[in-house]
Amino acid sequence: MRKNFFNPPETYVDVLLAGTHLFPRMKKFFDATESLKKRLGSEVVRTDAEACFAASFDNTKLSFLPEAVIFPRDESDVETVLREANKNGVPVCVRGAGTGTTAAAAPVCGGWVISFAEWTQLEIDADAGTATVQPGVVTQKINDAAAAHGLFYPPDPASVKHCTIGGNIATNAGGLHAAKYGVTRDYVLALEGFLPTGEKVRWGGAVKKYVSGYNLRDLWIGSEGMLGVITRATLRLVPRPETKHTFLCAFADDASALRAAQDLSRERIVPSVCEFLDTVSVDCAERYSGKKFFEKTSAVLLVEVDGDAESVPAQAERVRAWARSRATAFRETSDAEEAESLWEVRRICSQSMFLLADSKLNEDVAVPAKNFVPLLEAMRNVTGETGLATPIFGHAADGNLHVHVMFHRDNEQERQAAQVAIRRVMETVVALDGVITGEHGIGLAKSPFLAIQHSSAEIAAMLAVKKALDPNDILGRGKMFTPFNVWDCVPVDVKLPWDKKKVAR
Ligand SMILES: Cc1cc2nc3c(=O)[nH]c(=O)nc-3n(C[C@H](O)[C@H](O)[C@H](O)COP(=O)(O)OP(=O)(O)OC[C@H]3O[C@@H](n4cnc5c(N)ncnc54)[C@H](O)[C@@H]3O)c2cc1C
Question: Which residue, judged by its Cα, is nearest atom 2 of ligand 1?
């Protein structure tokens, strides 16, 4: 039976039938949970199947059941949970909205999940150009609140309507506007929260310059909830762009589109958006929508420039000149509604890929612009050798191209080919001076590849930091440093709020 996110299983037996993984339940964890429940109350410490199941997985749908989900009322609850966890050796996972794509928020070793879903306070200081937020604020809401003051919070992961700022900071999330505006790290001024051992700390401040002591604020950003629990953040806001101009450009082939993207910086064009879609992705989007975006199905670049009303026409003229000399065709507009029709191909390409197979590995790799074409060639070789489709789309201006390997989950040969292919992709990316993850992080899903990216000295340094801040290995136990084979797990069959309808082949 298909289980809905809002209609979870009733009992642990149901949970097991739903395919979740139950960490061997330890009496020690059980006793510690009962004692915590007595201390904080059963509204704060929930052990019912509904709460535990909902907190057992993220967007990967790899489910691991915790002992309890904690909904802290205040900071003192957070401190109590961490101190009790350290006393009893109980692992703790921190959870935002669970949109993560690496199982970083999944309690793979059981234990307790701290959920910040109800921590949604948000305050804008328009004079200072800052937002002070609790970790459970949904990212889109920060931007909506900033807009009322003519301000802008630029980091906009595609999950912006669902994900939380706590999760964004812990993964250093990027988004479509990273090309011009940067990623989450570029907007975090100060963080407050707790060390894994339960001491309250504050890193950074609401000032532009801050060089007192080691920069542990930046160490927390992107540390995937393994070095501290964020309970408050002060974010920098920037003036809201007044207007934008959008171009959709078609190219003779995939490599020409990628070379044209490289040329943008040579032409001193700083687009706010530059999204690449290869011919396979565009073909899927055209079949899915029943529309032709250009006369001939071609690789495209979606390029946008933004700013004030005076500067945007001049920027648009530069893009026009760039497009005239490189694209086979292009469309452009400064009208917001028309721009939506140019964006359509990008908005639908992800779900339309299921025309190729029922399962997709989406790898958020990044390589320097000079290596875009070698990466493309490597992906085409993977297709040649395995027969699996490898569509590519993503953020060309910052090198964060999302490469995909499509396969049929029930076809053992394809499953095995996909596993081999993905390791090859990781090795290739590192050989091309790139990184195995540009925005999603390591979590469980990419843990087998950490040693491809980093030397043993680098990993030892990271482990030394982890050990110093979290001597009992409480936060995010089992993640990042312990290679985990996701192929041993079957994802649970649930529909999440952000899931789009899959298409039939
Ligand atoms: C449809 C879709 C599109 C996406 N597009 C993008 C994209 O464009 N760019 C991008 O970067 N990502 C993207 N993602 C991935 C995901 O949305 C991001 O990683 C996001 O930052 C996770 O936020 P969350 O609130 O869901 O965190 P969760 O998934 O709940 O947790 C993610 C990590 O953050 C930690 N964490 C959460 N809250 C805290 C806290 N208060 N203190 C300490 N640690 C904490 C967790 O322990 C975990 O390690 C996408 C996901 C989906 C489903």
Answer: 159
**How many angstroms separate the CA atoms of 396 and 376, rounded?**
12
pLDDT in tens, 195-240: 999 999 999 999 989 999 999 999 999 999 999 999 999 999 999 9
The fraction of the chain above a pLDDT of 70, given in percent, is 94
Question: Which superfamily is assigned to 243-431 in CATH?
Answer: FAD-linked oxidases, C-terminal domain (3.40.462.10)
Distances in Å between the Cα of 324 and the Cα atoms of 176, 260, 262, 320, 328 are 24, 11, 16, 6, 8
Taking a C-beta distance cutoff of 8 angstroms, is the pair 161, 168 a contact? no
Topology adopted by domain 122-239 = 3.30.465
Pocket (CB within 6 angstroms of ligand 1): 58-59, 93-101, 104-105, 116, 135, 157-159, 163-164, 166-168, 170-171, 173-175, 224-225, 229-230, 439-440, 498
For a mutational test of ligand 1's pocket, the pick from 164, 171, 349, 440, i.e. the residue with the most ligand atoms closer than 8 A to its C-beta, is 171
Domain residues of the chain, as ranges?
3-117+468-495, 122-239, 243-431
Quick one: pLDDT band at residue 184, thresholds 50, 70, 90?
Answer: very high
- The model's pTM is 0.95
